[in-house]
Design brief:
Blueprint lengths: L4 E4 L10 H9 L4 E2 L16 H19 L7 E5 L1 H12 L7 E5 L7 H16 L5 H11 L6 H4 L8 H9 L2 H7 L4 E6 L8 H7 L3 E6 L18 H7 L5
Parallel strand pairs: 1-2, 1-3, 3-4, 4-5, 5-6
Helix pairs in contact: 2-3, 3-8, 4-7
Length: 244
């Protein structure tokens, strides 16, 4: 059976952002798991805690391995933005159940204090509005979503920016985690990503793998619908050891 794949969404996103990629992989006969992180999507009512989020990713990896019959190897683990940082952390801290490879998209920087603070202010302001930011959510959905579908994750862009999540991301040391990962790693950033300040440092921390910059893509911010992640398919297939 083909190797299984786990796909992890970004901060303020939802599992639906991976739907186009997941559909393409399932059409190839792969077992695909797309966990929802606490504080996001269907789990929006839950408080975001780093350990709970990491546990959700680890559980999805176990389920994918068991369902996909991965012949002793773990699933391929991929994540975008926050999901990419979590994927790297899981691969670095779970050696007994390591994935076969990691793809982290849209992680051109480790979270900087000023960036966290700016997002926290945006979330706090939205929470003070009479409708608690619902109008802003709708505007975000209209701005960042494709005309047909794909709006579920965009509607979370503002409401998902919770202090717990931001503090948790700020606490992660992605470069240190990359240095501990022994399986192949691909960091794939979009040429249009706004935050790539530490791209070189992250590349140098990769023990086995490479950094790719995808022309015309924006992967680190709110995305323009699920199809925006389709350029990651060739890199996923390369980590699976198959032609792109």
């Amino acid at each position: 059976m083909s190797a299984a794949v786990v796909l992890v969404h970004g901060l303020g996103g939802a599992a639906a952002e991976w739907s186009a990629v997941a559909d393409a992989l399932r059409a190839e006969g792969r077992e695909v798991r797309v966990p929802e992180l606490p504080g996001h999507g269907a789990r929006r009512a839950e408080a975001f805690e780093l350990e709970t989020a990491l546990a959700a990713v680890r559980a999805a990896c176990r389920e994918a391995r068991e369902a996909g019959g991965s012949r002793g190897a773990g699933p391929l683990l991929a994540g975008r933005a926050l999901g990419g940082h979590l994927a790297i952390q899981v691969a670095a801290t779970t050696p007994e159940d390591a994935p076969r490879g990691v793809l982290a998209a849209g992680i051109g920087t480790e979270t900087l204090g000023w960036l966290v603070d700016s997002y926290r202010v945006a979330g706090a302001v939205a929470g003070l509005l009479p409708d608690r930011g619902e109008a802003v959510n709708r505007l975000a959905a209209e701005t960042f979503s494709a005309p047909t579908g794909g709006s579920a994750q965009a509607a979370e862009v503002v409401a998902g920016l919770r202090p717990q999540a931001l503090d948790a991301v700020h606490a992660l040391d992605t470069r240190a985690a990359l240095r501990r990962i022994e399986v192949p790693v691909v960091v794939a950033n979009g040429a249009k990503d706004r935050f790539r300040l530490q791209e070189g440092a992250l590349r140098r921390a990769i023990r086995r793998g490479r950094l790719e910059r995808i022309r015309g893509a924006a992967l680190g911010d709110a995305i323009a619908g699920p199809e925006a992640l389709l350029p990651l398919l060739p890199h996923l297939r390369s980590l699976l050891g198959e032609p792109a």
